[in-house]
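Acetoin utilization protein AcuC, pasting as requested.
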Amino acid sequence: MTDSCAFVFSEELLNYKFSTHHPFNQFRLKLTIDLLNKIDALDPMQIIPPRMATDEELMLIHDPAFIEAVKKAGNGKLSKEVAENYGLGTEDTPIFSNMHEASSLLVGGTLTAVDQVMTGKALHAVNLGGGLHHGFRGKASGFCVYNDSSVAIKYLLEKYQARVLYVDTDAHHGDGVQWSFYDEPNVCTLSIHETGRYLFPGTGNINERGQGAGYGYSFNIPVDAFTEDESWLHAYTHAIREVADFFKPDVILTQNGADSHYYDPLTHLSATMKIYREIPKLAHEIAHQYCGGRWIAVGGGGYDIWRVVPRAWAMIWLEMTENRICYGSLPADWLEYWQKKSPVELPKEWDDPENLYPPIPRKPEITEKNLNTLEKALYPIRSQKKSETG
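Structure tokens follow.
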């Protein structure tokens, strides 16, 4: 096993584009890569181009009729009525030209990352173009056509017979992945997200614990709206460590949506860059403690593509490569170039200022609520451990 890291990318990943004004904008990939290049943190030899997922690989998760519908939609040959049955042509997931090809490349990018890690070519691998966790077996949903994480996990199960821990830190619940493996005991899903009370998709409650042979392998930490760094990190730190110790995975797959930040326009959380430092650090720790280092990371949500996503996603790669350069000022040439194109003022530092937002009036109440949520979510693990030691 080598200790190298693989960064899956090609310009073609930017072809997954619904429209000019759609909030899901893969241009954030270019901003992130340019930031890494400006600090000399990404060697061209580490960049691996994604491949296209085959129809057979897509069918590990997706219904053949849905795949055919996506193909027809991308070629302008699917009626509006039929498209809507498949979640296509909606406000969230509009139809765009060559939709199947662009979506298959995102899936293939994550499969490329999987193979890099599981064949020992790389210890860690990242596909920031992936992380489309809302896609279902026969339906597109929430900006997601095909579900690359679900396909990758099924691929890991079948090709590598691996026990997979899937950790989702997107502000939106990782519903598509959870339901794909709800009865599978060799997949453990952990999602920490904003409560679905006010936010799409409305799922991810504590009592969603799996079913059949998979009961007890689904964990959800729905945090309250306006949750801040300390409370969020307390929940994440305890959850990932205790769940990993309970499940003892062979490989960890992390979905790294960057939409829990205060600046994000689609969510209601109050996190800062502090959590995006710690998310990959803990994932890295867990990978080495339980998985022989095997760690695959994908992107996900993140709709402030200028101020948040480049910094947050750069930190994943910098953690993977054990590069501690992301402190102090952002590179002046990156700021100078992109500020001319950005509609908002870019941050000058890797970290956010302490006074990023006004004080949250309900902070004690929110913190207490999140503590109770964490306790209930982890109760089965904690009670089992107590009975074993006690």
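Note for the archive: The mean pLDDT is 97.
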